[in-house]
Write a structure and sequence with these properties.
The structure is a homotetramer. Chain A has 13 helices and nine strands. Chain A is of the alpha/beta class. Chain A folds into two domains: 3-160, Rossmann fold (3-Layer(aba) Sandwich); 166-284, N-(1-d-carboxylethyl)-l-norvaline Dehydrogenase, domain 2, CATH 1.10.1040.10. Chain A is elongated.
């Protein structure tokens, strides 16, 4: 049994904390309201009102927060309270460069740090079926592994601190690009008069097949863009990709191109839609505005 | 039993013709040399020396040729010899617009036309495991289906004449884009110090997964770019995509971007490499020339 | 004095034919209506009702037509009537490859061919101030030069037959790209709170200066997108660029990117606006729909 | 007469400081060596060994430094020494967001801040002919104007603090894009057999004309890529553009595309060449490696 402070009991975080509690760990979350405390309590997660209080007694601090500044703020807040060699595990999707800087601040007070962003979404969090991309020292990752196994199905150690975020970033650039390519294919197929469902079926069976095509095809053809994974989150993630590339002076032409398209959708007010709504922009750019809920 | 003229006994065409012969059809190919005639004979394929001769006695004429002008030339050559209502099936990957024009010329002499480009490569041709994307009238496609079933595993009727080529084009834009996205991910992961095989494994297990990642990953990491599917053929196919998009005034930004990269590889002399060599250009653009045969 | 058949008495063609007539040449145009004949007559241009009739008696045939198929059709129509060594001068903006094929057809009947597309627009046509990019044999270009001097101010011989069209294509890719870059700069400047007129003034004075910035800036800031040069014509010209690049297997990444944007505007119904309306799409992609006639 | 601390006596800074001294101001620079002190002395610029010492007695502190962290470090170093209402003028090209943060730190100790990046290069610095893009409060800009007039020819107040950097960023995106478009035009013209000098002459005379074409054409055709303005500096500036766009969630497709190309050149080891060497990459992507010093 590990004593865990879990900071970030959101849509993803709460079921993850619950799965840790169910696995027999002592889990304390941080809440701001009685209602949130009750929700956590129902899931077997104890609560306090400040991150520092949660961290004070913990062997392991897990953060699951929206963006880089949130993790920076929480880590700064808990540093004074951190037990000597406590292990901080950040499961948020944030900047790889900032991750290394935060890890250095943790190391400066004797702590250890692992970055472990996830994929699999809310369903994966609930079902303990997340994929977890882990960056950190071998010993620290080994220590964290049982906790990851309570939350996920695929746990892969992908390199030193920061590498987890880098792999998540690479994952997100492929996902965005794949969706856009399917969207462009749909635009071409429709304009040229092909039978869309039949066409996507045969395409999906060959070298052009992808998980995106498999999982998103029907919703895209039906123009059902309820999330799922919101474009505004994907835009944030592509910002992480952009900085990871830029900091190494990398030229990534397709990544840069699809990043602009995701940003355009967010700027136009579609940030709350599922990322498969890249099709919506692709259609609008080609003069065929998407009407909600109607099939192609 | 159908009497078939099979024009184009190349790497793909010869095993396809053989599979038709094995299925009990009478297949006559066209060759220019005794050696080619002997090779065909060993596969159960009779031969003559001109396309018109082959077509003269055939119920069905199948073409499997490199590019649009080849199909145009052959169809022009056989038109005078074509039996009244013969069915011409073009299984080459060629222009959708040209396909419709060729079909009109066939119709003008009373013939019928189906376009049926394939994917699955040489192995798919040998194993009768091709995916076949079929455009044409219902009755014609129904008539051709038993022949397709002798050559392929997945046969999908995707629309009227030309639709087969359109679907193949859409397939090829997705494949090229997916390879390039994996290449960009590899460049990012390596520059940022991630463990490449571990990273690609976890990426492949989630929404970023694709057949490209599954089939091409190891060869890409090992820089083994022997074909497979040559970049110069993929460049040709992206030219077909370009014209299919342009003829409808479509804006396909990622497709256009990856098309330039494929062309650059061909222009630089790498057209004979497998299309996974998009990684080679991605690496050279980032100052890390690929050394043949060595792993990352 | 040269006897000239002038085919294509449109917005550009009529003032060009008039300037030839004013320079003392005998100019016969082709019209389809009495009204058009009267308009031409007022400008000193005689008329007949068929291109073949006009060409029959001419030393020089000039074509000024919308697109490639128009020129092909007219040349095919006049070939039987063409005097032995007549000079055909195409001043339309059409395909470079098609130009070479048309020139070969003219040469096959003993004629000579020069391609001489223009820039400078309607005002340039009226004021005999066009820039003329001339492709052809030295002797033919020398023979045509006095005619060009009656219509234009800058006449440059840029290579063999087809080269005029290639240079016009290169011109059009630069113009489209320059407009888009100014549009992106405006989007950035506005979002970041800079004083737009002041910013564009200082930018225009340095290495970022361009004729586009000088001539289009005020209209762009005021969102006045009345043509000028229509996006649908620019889309046609970028199709010419695309084929000229594609036929040589060239990778032109910025050209390809801006081509998609021009097409998107046309697909969305803005093809009748001036090409400076690339700003309109740039703004819409960034969530700031352009309201007609209002300043930034 | 104003007492000025000038921090950053480099290739640009030293002649700028000299021009201020010649205009009658008391200028003290910061040097690390006796040799640098002597060079400054010969130009009428006094020197001390620390930025804080220089700032202590100054009404105005001018910084002319390579990049954002340099300006941040210097401003942090001088803050304790800064006279109550001293005016800090940063003439470096740095981040717009960081500029606003630095200005806030200066304001917190009672100081005032103006950002005033320049264009015009070493020659402009020597000849007091710089273009200066100024962001700041009206009163502060008015106070700084006489100093700017000693260093530049075009001084434009483009908005509040940070706006100067934003305008410089917009300038740099247009310049990079314009160079790339000329490079792509050259590749197309050469592949299609046009007479390059004649073609660029006629192109430059119309709507495609630009200062880039005028100033860079001959060097590009001769493949003379000695700087001038180094690609590595342009890559840095495009990083500033990227962050300025990203921080506002902007979609700038051509800007993003050309940024990748500039980075590729730097990654390949060409960062020390003039930015017109975008042509070098354009040619290499098209299989025609540039040989140094030879004409096209």
């Amino acid at each position: 049994m590990t004593t865990i402070a879990f900071i970030g009991l959101g849509i993803m975080g709460l079921p993850m904390a619950r799965n840790l509690a169910r696995a027999g760990h002592s889990v304390t979350g941080v809440v701001r309201s009685d209602a949130a405390a009750e929700r956590a309590d129902r899931e077997g997660v104890a609560t306090v009102r400040s991150a520092a209080d949660a961290a004070a007694g913990a062997d392991v601090v897990i953060t699951m927060l929206p963006d880089t500044p949130d993790v920076e703020a929480v880590v700064d807040a808990i540093l004074p309270a951190l037990r000597g060699s406590a292990l901080v595990i950040d499961m948020s999707t944030i900047d790889a460069g900032a991750t290394r800087a935060i890890a250095a601040r943790v190391a400066a007070v004797g702590g250890r740090y692992v970055d472990a962003p996830v994929s699999g979404g809310e369903a994966g969090a609930i079902d303990a079926a997340l994929s977890i991309m882990v960056g950190g020292a071998d010993a620290d990752v080994a220590e964290a592994r049982p906790l990851f196994e309570a939350m996920g199905r695929t746990i892969v150690h992908v390199g030193p601190v920061g590498a987890g975020q880098v792999v998540k970033a690479a994952n997100q650039l492929i996902v965005a690009g794949n969706i856009q390519l399917v969207a462009e294919a749909i635009v071409l197929l429709r304009a040229q008069g092909a039978d869309l469902p039949a066409a996507l079926e045969v395409i999906g069976g060959g070298l052009a097949g992808s998980t995106v095509l498999e999982r998103k095809r029907d919703a895209m053809l039906a123009h059902r863009f309820d999330p799922g994974f919101r474009l505004q989150l994907h835009a944030k993630d592509l910002g992480i990709v952009e900085r990871a590339a830029s900091s190494k002076g990398l030229a990534l032409p397709l990544t840069a191109a699809v990043t602009q398209l995701v940003r355009a959708l967010v700027a136009r007010g579609d940030g709350g839609l599922d990322h498969s709504a890249l099709l919506k922009l692709a259609e609008e750019l080609n003069g065929t505005p998407t009407s909600g809920g109607h099939s192609a």
